Amino acid sequence: MASTQAARVYRPRQAQQTIVHQVVKEYLPELIEQAEQGSYSLLEFVEGELQAMLRCGDPAHGFTHLKCSRCGHDRFLPFSCKARNVCSLCSGCRMNETVAHLVDQVIPEVPLRHWALTFPPPLRYLLAYDSDLCTEILNIFVRTVFAWQRRLAKRELGLASVRHAHPGAITAIHRVGSALNLNLHLHSAMLDGVFVQSDPAEQPVFRALRGPEKGDILGLAWDICLQTKQHLQKVGKYFDGDPDADELAQDSPLLAACYAASMQQTVAVGPRAGQGVLRMGAYVENTDRESAETEQTLGHGYNLHAGYRVSGKDRKGRERILHYLLRPPIATDRLSRSPDGRVIYWLRKPWANGTSSFKFEPLDFVAKLLPLVPPPRVNQIRYHGVFGAHSKLRSQIAPAPVESKAKRGQLELAVSSGSKTNGTNSSGRARPDRMLWADLAARTFEIDVLECVRCGHRPIQVVSVIKAPSLDQLAAVCAASSQQSPVRWPRRSRAPPMGQMQFSFVRWAA
After folding, report:
1. pLDDT in tens, 221-242
2. Cα(297)–Cα(123) distance, integer angstroms
């Protein structure tokens, strides 16, 4: 019996159709104009990130031309913007590519535990702009947990020295909270154990450790608090420091005001500046909330969590943890616009007080995006211990490289120019270059992008890479995108995606 479900085919990115793109395109010039009228200006890296996002998926800024050698069907793939935080499409592409690299070539089949650390609000403001200070505090967090793991390994495994125990961690720096507020915190995938190597000539062996108990978590959070306080006092950036020493306020008063408004969940610009962001939902009185928050903040606001663990054989579990660590900051599927043009951001689940969504004025929504842009030339993913770039054990514990199931030849179909093909280095191991666009799409979405959507012939061929298209070339792109390709049927039926038919109906609060 013929299937009634259409085949899964690749559709080019529609960045210009997203709400974030539309609002930024319409209101970013107004925000810049208001800043200039007040003798302020946006920092170059912040404005550059937003301007780059507006070019994402726009054929006017370049595209790759592909053609089917059998039927002559043309396909045009616009370049991506490479924005690190604001563009969810490019962030999602980078997330899938990084997860594939880590699972295939970095992390062995050993248990992982997810650790998360949040900071008190005053420290979030300092860490969000001061990248050097953020690095030092991140190192304090990792060193503290590593020291606990080494002591535990020496006691439980009977090691002669803590130096024979080698932990490992991959940490991602997150800047955004659930309400699109500035909330810098850390998510780390750490080995739930250590690699033991008493002699450099021996092969390291992984030994699992018991999970942290509540007392361990509270003790580690307190140690991180004390060490952070000492470091802040040492560098002269403690909470009671001189307000005139605020580097962000000196470099960009407008950005500093947006940072503060984002943390306090208040409106940054417009007639309602200084007032709270509008919340929607049914109010729920929760008398236990205050006591629960007090119980979780025994470390003076340093909340440490380490409850989720996956086994060494659970490959999907490792990918799930890494996807959570590297996820885009903005969930575009939870964005919508009200009839009056305001931007609504829905929470994944309602808060204890009943808040289910936040409503932003379009101009203030653009201002809320400014703090989400990290400082330039700062890595948002850090590797420590056996995963560090200079670790002697990294090459010994890394899994064997996984070859692609289908050889793509020299076809470089990256959405942006300059992508390299995978190869091997002098040692024979797979070179950790960026994945081919075709391989990434096949792995992530189970779609063969090299197959012609009209006749099914593969592979399609690259005709040219256009970086500065002419008007005639842009007209050809518009004509090709307006044509409807005939629908092909799959050889076998596929089950619908999980959760596809789940709808939630929320009553709007006044």
Report:
1. 999 999 999 999 898 887 655 5
2. 14
One-letter amino acid at 394 equals R
How much is the pLDDT for 471?
A: 79
Rounded to whole angstroms, how far apart are CA atoms 429 and 416? 26
Instruction: Give yes or no for a contact between 407 and 168, defined as CB atoms under 8 angstroms apart.
Output: no
Q: Does a structural domain hold residue 115? A: yes
Q: Is residue 35 part of a domain?
A: no
CB-based contact 288:297 (threshold 8 Å): no
pTM for the whole thing? 0.82
Rounded to an integer, the average pLDDT of 277-302 is 63
Q: How confident is the model at residue 410 (pLDDT cuts 50, 70, 90)?
A: very low
Q: What is the pLDDT of residue 261?
A: 92
Place of tokens 């417009």: 270
Taking the alpha carbons of 342, 257, 174, 432 in that order, is the dihedral positive or negative? positive
Cα four-point dihedral sign 413, 414, 417, 420: negative
Task: Identify how many contiguous H helices and E strands the chain contains and give both numbers.
Answer: 14, 15
Contact call for residues 170 and 382 (beta carbons, < 8 A): yes
Question: SS3 sequence, 46-114?
Answer: HHHHHHHHHCCCCHHHCEEEEECCCCCCEEEEECCCCCCCCCHHHHHHHHHHHHHHHHHHCCCCCCEEE
Domain span holding position 234: 106-275+293-334+372-395
Length reported for the chain: 510
The tally of CA atoms less than 13 A away on the side-chain side of residue 462 is 17
In this prediction, residue 237 carries a pLDDT of 81
* Location of structure tokens 């992530």: 444
In a domain, 177, yes or no: yes
Number of domains in the chain: 1
Q: Is the predicted pLDDT of residue 220 greater than 90, yes or no? A: yes
Q: In what order do the strands lie in the sheet with 343-346?
A: 278-281, 355-360, 343-346, 335-337
Domain-embedded: residue 312: yes
Structure tokens at 164: 């024979």
Residue type (1 letter), 52? A
Segment among 40-49, 99-108, 250-259, 484-493 with least mean pLDDT: 484-493
